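Researcher: Sequence recovery benchmark, item below. Answer with residues only.
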């Protein structure tokens, strides 16, 4: 009989522990996310389509399962299970809540369950900050935009700002637009406390904000396009289209389009999916972030650049495994004793 291997202990990692590992470490997290994109680009991941659980009695809510496996130096499998209940916000709690399960690469045993709304926000912001830096560098002229504008200002917008600021971005001005005046005022108040943000303006329309910004962030919860005019982008801004469904196909087709993963991004009624349905092909997708990282895509100066990240489960795994390793090395893993109980084949 081959030698018996121990069953790994099962740990629970709280949001407070996740926060203490990630807080103030924006550059490190961007590095982890870049490494995950490189592993993905090299074909050493498995990242099947996300599964959307929807409810006939609660049509604006959903829970998404993102199973994934990442190789390279990370070597972990697992799944993010993330809920979006938009009505939570009016009730005073965040829209999204999530857990991440990490599975041991050798045995398949679940190693840990991590609070994952922070991991999800951090990896999303890190991916957008990475894309912004590399796309700005790759554009002819190579200068960084200095006028930022945020459309839709919840948790993701705040994380995105903190990841840009934490990786060296400074702005002359920051625009804010949200359907809710209360949210716009709250976010403007947050920006006022942040150094390097410049003059802050709350705009009355998306058009006004887009026309006065060179870096436009979409982080709304729009389910269908609400920005239809390509002319609003005639100054060729860099657009971080994190919420994926804001832009009409006409805007997408007038831009250089960079995605994190082509198959994922052209699904589930995203703006790019609608554009594909309109023209019947995917020729308007110019490349992936991996292509940008490896210098395989040229960005023309005379078109807006739109980055649309579907959000890959492998990013959550990479950030989650890093947190697991840090907490474990610090001797602070909270293990659930005897979690796996039936371990002898015949009792
Ligand atoms: N691509 C990814 O990897 C990824 C990852 C995480 C979250 N997201 C997306 O980011 C988005 C924002 O998430 P959040 O947690 O910050 O949400 P949130 O609910 O906290 O905030 C969203 C904000 O958008 C505003 N809004 C809604 N529709 C708008 C519109 N048409 N114009 C202007 N403002 C509008 C709302 O009033 C709200 O303030 C969500 O769509 C979420 O699915 C994407």
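Model:
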């Amino acid at each position: 009989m081959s030698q018996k291997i121990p069953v790994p202990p099962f740990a629970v990692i709280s949001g407070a522990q996740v926060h203490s590992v990630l807080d103030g470490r924006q550059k490190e997290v961007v590095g982890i996310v870049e490494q995950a994109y490189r592993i993905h680009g090299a074909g050493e991941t498995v990242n099947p389509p996300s599964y959307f659980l929807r409810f006939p009695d609660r049509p604006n809510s959903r829970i998404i399962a993102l199973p994934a496996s990442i190789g390279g130096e990370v070597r972990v499998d697992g799944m993010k299970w993330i809920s979006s209940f938009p009505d939570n916000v009016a009730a005073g709690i965040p829209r999204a809540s999530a857990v991440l399960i990490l599975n041991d690469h050798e045995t398949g045993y679940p190693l840990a369950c991590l609070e994952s709304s922070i991991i999800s926000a951090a990896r999303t912001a890190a991916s957008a900050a990475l894309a912004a830096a590399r796309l700005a560098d790759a554009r002819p002229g190579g200068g960084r935009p200095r006028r930022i504008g945020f459309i839709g200002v919840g948790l993701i917008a705040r994380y995105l700002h903190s990841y840009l600021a934490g990786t060296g971005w400074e702005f002359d001005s920051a625009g804010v637009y949200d359907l809710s005046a209360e949210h716009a005022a709250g976010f403007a108040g947050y920006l006022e406390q942040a150094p390097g943000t410049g003059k802050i303006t709350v705009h009355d329309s998306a058009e006004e904000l887009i026309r006065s910004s060179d870096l436009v962030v979409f982080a709304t919860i729009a389910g269908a396009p609400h920005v239809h005019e390509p002319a609003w982008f005639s100054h060729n801004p860099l657009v971080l289209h994190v919420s994926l469904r804001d832009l009409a196909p006409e805007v997408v087709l007038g831009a250089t389009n960079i995605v994190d993963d082509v198959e994922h991004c052209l699904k589930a009624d995203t703006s790019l999916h609608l554009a594909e349905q309109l023209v019947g092909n995917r020729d308007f997708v110019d490349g992936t972030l991996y292509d940008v990282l490896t210098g395989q895509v040229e960005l023309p100066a005379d078109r807006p650049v739109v980055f649309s990240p579907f959000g890959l489960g492998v990013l959550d795994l990479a950030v989650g495994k890093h947190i697991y390793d840090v907490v474990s090395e610090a001797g602070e893993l909270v293990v659930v004793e005897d979690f796996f109980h039936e371990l002898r084949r015949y009792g």
